Amino acid sequence: MRLLVEGVGDRVALVPTSSGDVRIVVVDEDDVADVDAVERVPARALRFDPTVVPNDDGAAHDARARRASELDDALIASASMMARVKLSAHCAGAEPSEAEAAVLPRAPTPTPYDVDAYDAHSTPTPSKDWAERQARGETLATTDWIEVELLAEGGAGDSSSLARSPAPQSDFVRGSFSQVPFTPGGEGWDAAARESAAKRMELASRAGKAWLEEFEAGTYLSASTLPNTLHGMREMFDLDSGMEQMELELEKLTVMDDEELPMSYDDLFIDALRGAVRPEESSSEEDDTEDETEDETEEDGEAVDEVTLEGEAEVEALLNGTKSIIAARRRSKSRKKKGETWAVMERFDDVQEAYRREVPEPAHDFPFELDLFQKEAIVHLEKSENVFVAAHTSAGKTVVAEYAFALATKHCTRAIYTSPIKTISNQKFRDFGKMFDVGLLTGDVSIKPEAACLIMTTEILRSMLYRGADLIRDVEWVIFDEVHYVNDAERGVVWEEVIIMLPAHVGLILLSATVPNVFEFADWVGRTKRKKIFVTGTKKRPVPLEHCIYFGGDKEKDFYKVGEHEAFLPTGYKVASDAHKKKLLGNKTTTATPANAQAAKQTALAGRGGRGGAQQGRGGRAGGRGGTQNVTGGRGSSFGPNAGRDKNMWVELIRNLERRELLPMVVFAFSKKRCDTLVDSLTSMDLTSSSEKHEIHVFCERALSRLSVTDRKLPQVLRVRELLRRGLGVHHAGLLPIVKEIVEMLFCRGLLKVLYCTETFAMGVNAPARCVCFQSLRKHDGQDFRGLLSGEYTQMAGRAGRRGLDTVGTVILAAWENFPPELELRQLLSGQATKLQSQFRLTYGMILNLMRVEDLRVEDMLARSFAEFHAQRSVIDRRGDLAIDTAALRKVESLMQTEAQFSPDEWQKAVHWDDHAREIARSVEHVREAIMTSRGAQNALSPGRVLLVAPEGEGGESVDGLPRGGVAKHCVLLRVVTSATNGKSFVVLVSCPEGHASKGVAEAEDAARDNAPTAMKSMNSKDKDDDDDFFGMSKKSAGGGKRGGTTSNKMPDGLPWFRQAGGIDYIVASVPETAILAITTSRLSVEADAILDGSGDVAATSRALLSMEKLSSETSFEALHPLKDLKIQDIVTVEACQHHADLVKSLPPRPVASAQKLREWSALLRAKHVLTSRVAELEFGLSDANLLQMPDFEARVAVLQRMGYLDENRTVTLKGRVACEIATGDELVGTEIIFAGVLTDIPSEEAVALLAALVFQEKNASPPNLEGSLKAACDRAKELAFAAGEIQMAHGLPIAPDEFVETTMRFGLSEVVYEWARGTPFADICQLTDVQEGSVVRTIVRLDEMCRDVRNAARIMGDSTLFAKMEEASAAIKRDIVFSASLYVAGAQ
């Protein structure tokens, strides 16, 4: 039987197959007669999984797509026509609802086995199986009704699946906030996405059922109507109508009566663990690791179930047994899991052989022989495995990135190279562009975004992920360069965000300098993404280094080697130190000047370093910022009386290096001003030949030709050109970008001989030198001056030595004024590099970006951060502990139910007594110190005083963390013992009408100790007489005697005593002060010395016990009054003590009818208390609430709700969506300025001047001169920022409003930007501020990004006036030298 599908150009027939499904083939005109029936097939029937379909030519694919589209159109038209006809016949006058879908018959869905049927040239025939079924009279199942959506299914705005419909082409690269991020790779994200998808499917299903009811009732549907049952649905899906209506509609459609909202991931896991120890059905959708965990927890639960509980001894065995089970489980698991990690370093036995075998045809050929670690990384890439490459600077890590680009090009996919700073991005664009099809994406530049290989900053990639850019679908590799930049306090969080947010199909390549915890970081990445990370690299430097100290004076012996091959040379340091002292003493003899005497004194003290001498100011300066500076210590420089001498030393050093052929040299000076001062002092230095001068001149002319005549004559340009002509250079953030690039390129060409630079040159430019010199070993880190870290020193020193040109790289420490101490130098040369540490912190932008997507949760982001790595790594162990304790708690509760049924009245009395005693114990914690130190208590604590004493564990924990058995009791004080080591102890007498503990307790505890680890045995070891130690005070732990030092009263030997007098069991024990719950007003007349006599006076003890029993039966015990008895004066303390006294007075009588059961009941109640506490603690530890930054998250959410960015249901509002667009400045302040209309009321040049305060970052700048409406707008912006700071402080965030205003809004360049937007030349605006030219350019470039953010926000708000104003402002500032194209991008002639 063949079913014909009509309505399209080519007729399509459904042909049965052997599997019982249907093939779709094109039918010729001659074959129409063979068709048995007519059927309409909806578009959904043609959809199949594309991953199982073999690739074919594009023409066939396009043809099928056209036919499918024509088929859909024909079916919809047919359905609409039928609806109109029947509607006119049966339901005249009815108003059909608008349709967003059509209800059509269901056709069999093609399977992977029917792929060949999509080939128009194939002629499949019915199978024998199908023929046999027809012979038996079997027919196809009646087709069911299905709903065919008329709109695209799974659009970019409501689905995080990679299979969703694409967004508009204009948002392909950078994405849009109307799109949803793709589901991140790793455990847990898919579950949340499935939950969200199920919610949407349920919504569609219920809507479809309502629609079908209308269809069957006669209200037929058309493509332009909406069902009456879903009134208002169109407005609900209109994003601009707000999210509140959508939330209400979703709740109506998806939440039934008594239906709980979806639990979090951790809640689900805890629920599964409970199921592991209960005979309930459990889900089987966990991965292999979780399956193993469940098996182990079940075994642990069975181990607990094997414990039989029939009394106090068994309860004690349970409590101790759970500890033993947990300890044994951890030991076993530690042995089992040893070596299992997500970070793997499997070095091949023969790397060369593995390379030849796995890479027979390399995707990219290199003109040099690869190192072993490079070949190893390439082998892993060929196997589609993730790699982490750690190696020194210039070791060749970039080779791995090049090969990833080659693989992406070969596979017709994409690869993304991310860098921490824009300079590296520009340089890599030039380098990679020579070999591959490369594009560049930065904040202000977009070049060839369609290229297969893209280079961008990490912030751009983060933005693409949050915006759900469709380009991410095509990405095969993401290369993270300079991963050690994750330690950056300001921007390190970006690396963690990107790694967490990347989808599962993206491979990871991480490149980093050598760090000590590379495996730890790789393990975190692997666990987060559920991928093995193969670690490779090398600690060998391509060019070995030697470290020398230089202080001048002797042309032949000025360089003293103090280190080589990462090792410190003590002998070399001693020689250098002696020579330096000798030099200073010689100078003192010849010219005994005060300055030299001071320097000699400092050097003789082994260079106390740091901030210099006592006469110097901050960082070794003799005054403020404009004062005279000294090179000695701190920030030393070339000012003051020693400036000429300092200049001569640099000239001598450079000439000495030139003579030894150790140029070019890079000099690191950790201040922009210091770099300028040092290079400007070399006025007579000329290191270039005439030919080199000519080449430098030609290069500069061609590079600067793109600038206007006025910009070419800027003072900084002219000054730097003169330096370059003489072979000198300077490089720091204060230079104009084009000037910095000229310096970098000339240095790479070998035309510059000496370059003074800041630390950024070590990271931003791949330009090794013959020699590296450190002007100082101290720097300012933005907070204070400190010494260089070993990792920082290694990073900068690694620029010494040019691979292939130099056999050794030389590192020089300039020490003519600041001789480095031995310990500091040893740490720098051979110390451990800086560990990778998490800088993860919550931002409002992160919260809003995640909360606008129902598939993602902020809690999941927090749990996967590197900061939570160690806590999350122990989750599996804690889950097992939770299962064990849960099983034990269930057993205790079962036994308690049995006891309650046996003696309900007495059991309730025991429970009431225990609860009340615990409440007393909790209340006394707040007042114990005040009570025990009061004058009244000191007088009252005499022999015979009745005390309420807690069993150990209620007032203090025992050594193994478990409270011991017993109940709170009234005791008679016999003696107070004071020890110098143990403090006060109280010897008390207490009756035990329930009798001493049975022998079973001792046996159970001995067995538990035998099963415990060795360390626990040593902690728990006590005398056997301590088996029923009510207070936990054994002979060995009793204070006093010879161990305790001097005592006011001697501690009786052998406590505790377990004896009997007059037929009454009693205990004499020493209890600590923390066990005292109350001092009562009652006092007995006792013979304390007789009772405590070594033989123990039975008569005296019996009289005391009888008196105590009589007193207990005649009266209720009351605590000492805080005012009358204790003489406490503080009103707050008095109120707390009075509350405590009321609790003591209301303590109910102890149950006596079942005294023989009292100890057993107490053990049960205590076991429940301990296990409940442990289970609650473990559940908290496994929940989202235990995350380190959860309090900060809740506080920030409260702030967002208070300010209107989130509604009461934590749904992102329009204001929140606008804040998501503000990525350049502070999100809150920027959004508040926009919504307050501050930008609307001022012209474009003033608006852009105001926004400059959000992007300017330097702390020190001369105050601007603002007037008129601009000043009023700035004042209004300050008020808004101050109000935002107050709200944050009110919700517990450590933010002071004044500081918040200062850190988020800096108006130092507002006047400059205002004049620039008005068309003032760059040379003139530089006269308005003391900020250097490079910082001005950098601020204006970031300001253009801010204008783009505000423009996007205006589009969302529908504010066309603000949109046009930002367009005008952006055009006004984008001109001349500020936006001159990078030489790396445009190319230097």
Any overview of this molecule?
By secondary structure, the chain is α/β, with parallel strands linked by helices. The protein is 46% helix and 11% strand. The strands form 6 sheets. The chain has a 9-stranded mixed β-sheet with strand order 7-15-8-14-13-9-12-10-11. The protein has an 8-stranded mixed β-sheet with strand order 18-17-16-25-22-19-21-20. Helix 8 runs parallel beside helix 38 (1155-1182), helix 42 (1244-1255) crosses helix 48 and helix 47 packs antiparallel against helix 48 (1360-1373). The chain is globular. The two termini are 74 Å apart.
Number of helices: 49
What is the gyration radius calculated from CA atoms? 40 Å
Q: What share of residues are in beta strands?
A: 5-15%
Helix vs. strand class = alpha/beta
Detail the poorly predicted runs: 1-9, 35-57, 89-130, 138-153, 219-310, 335-339, 592-641, 953-965, 999-1048
Which quaternary structure do these chains form? single chain
Strand neighbour order, sheet with most strands: 7-15-8-14-13-9-12-10-11
**Rounded mean pLDDT score:** 75
Number of strands: 31
In whole angstroms, how far apart are the ends? 74 Å
Outline: globular
Main sheet: strands, sense, barrel: 9 strands, mixed
Helix fraction by DSSP (H/I, runs of at least 4):
40-55%
How is the topology of this model organized?
Elements: E1 3-5, E2 11-16, E3 22-27, E4 37-38, H1 58-90, E5 101-105, H2 128-135, E6 145-149, H3 189-217, H4 233-236, H5 244-254, H6 265-276, H7 288-305, H8 312-337, E7 343-344, H9 351-358, H10 372-382, E8 386-391, H11 398-411, E9 414-419, H12 422-433, E10 438-441, E11 446-447, E12 453-457, H13 458-466, E13 475-480, H14 492-501, E14 507-512, H15 518-529, E15 533-538, E16 545-550, E17 559-564, E18 567-568, H16 570-590, H17 594-604, H18 643-659, E19 665-668, H19 672-680, H20 690-704, H21 709-712, H22 715-725, E20 728-731, H23 737-748, E21 754-757, H24 760-764, E22 771-774, E23 778-780, E24 785-787, H25 790-797, E25 809-814, H26 822-830, H27 844-851, H28 858-863, H29 869-873, H30 875-902, H31 904-932, H32 935-940, E26 945-949, E27 969-979, E28 983-991, H33 999-1011, H34 1014-1020, E29 1057-1061, E30 1064-1072, E31 1076-1083, H35 1088-1091, H36 1098-1114, H37 1131-1145, H38 1155-1182, H39 1190-1202, H40 1214-1221, H41 1227-1235, H42 1244-1255, H43 1268-1290, H44 1297-1304, H45 1310-1317, H46 1322-1325, H47 1333-1357, H48 1360-1373, H49 1383-1386
Parallel strand pairs: 1-4, 7-15, 8-14, 8-15, 9-12, 9-13, 10-12, 13-14, 16-25, 19-21, 19-22, 20-21, 22-25
Antiparallel strand pairs: 1-2, 2-3, 5-6, 10-11, 16-17, 17-18, 23-24, 26-27, 26-31, 27-28, 28-30, 29-30
